[in-house]
Write a structure and sequence with these properties.
Low-confidence stretches: none
Structural class: alpha/beta
Strand order of the largest sheet: 1-8-7-6-5-4-3-2
Order of helices and strands: EHEHEHEHEEHEHEHH
Strand content: 15-25%
Bound molecules: D-xylitol-5-phosphate, zinc ion
CATH superfamily: Aldolase class I
Distance between the termini: 6 Å
Largest sheet: 8 strands, parallel
Radius of gyration: 16 Å
CATH architecture: Alpha-Beta Barrel
Shape: globular
Number of helices: 8
């Protein structure tokens, strides 16, 4: 499985979003965190800002919706041109119907799990998704520390995807850095979100390359 690096712009310099997106031109995606102050205790931005990112970003947009009622709101992010749209399983009423709708609109369909949400309910439905995001922090803020206890769930998820013979990506998000990316890759992740690690680096593209190399040595 190839390594995918998707830096989160949450803690970038928001007064210069275009410049900050250009700083990560070596990434596979730009990870754009949408927070509604209901599903998580933080508010970031909504559709108009994400549409602007789609317009100016040199790389495709990976939208992570930390919002209530994704059944109602997520399709608009696919229509806006996001390459991948991730909604939370805990917030969705009809996750499979929603995933099918996202795919029909031309986006990759992805479902996210908080650190303590079990993976097993997805096992029979993996073919409905292009990616599963296993949060390695409680969603809501950048700069938190990696929750190591998610690793056994990641390993079970990797086994389920492999034994189903599917090409479902497993993404980790939260506290991913040079110090943690190898363990996440070893446990089964192939797609990595890193916010503060990339944006606090002097040269963001060099940091992306370093993270990619560390992950590639351990990815399954
Ligand atoms: C947290 C967000 C993450 C966050 C990652 O709720 O979903 O994407 O920005 O930031 P770091 O890499 O700093 O943990
Ligand atoms: Zn995120």
């Amino acid at each position: 499985m190839s390594v995918v690096i998707s830096p989160s712009i949450l803690n970038s310099d928001l007064s210069d979003l275009k410049g900050e997106l250009e700083r990560i031109s070596g990434a596979d995606f730009a990870h754009v965190d949408v927070m509604d102050n209901h599903f998580v205790p933080n508010l970031s931005w909504g559709l108009p800002v994400v549409e602007a990112c789609v317009r100016v970003s040199p790389v495709p947009i990976d939208a992570h919706l930390m919002i209530e009622n994704p059944d109602r709101w997520a399709p608009a992010y696919a229509e806006a041109g996001c390459a991948s749209v991730t909604f939370h399983l805990e917030a969705a009423t009809a996750p499979i119907k929603l995933a099918r709708e996202l795919r029909a609109l031309g986006a990759k369909a992805s479902v996210a799990l908080r650190p303590s949400t079990p993976f097993e309910p997805l096992v029979d439905h993996l073919h409905e998704f292009d990616m599963v995001l296993l949060m390695t922090v409680e969603p809501g803020f950048g700069g938190q520390s990696f929750i190591e206890s998610v690793m056994p769930k990641l390993t079970r998820a990797r086994k389920a995807v492999s034994s189903a013979g599917l090409d479902v990506r497993l993404q980790v998000d939260g506290g991913v850095s040079r110090a943690t990316i190898e363990r996440a890759a070893e446990a089964g992740a192939d797609t990595f979100v890193a916010g503060s690690a990339v944006y606090s680096a002097e040269n963001a593209n060099d940091e992306i390359a370093a993270l990619r190399e560390l992950a590639a040595a351990h990815v399954h």
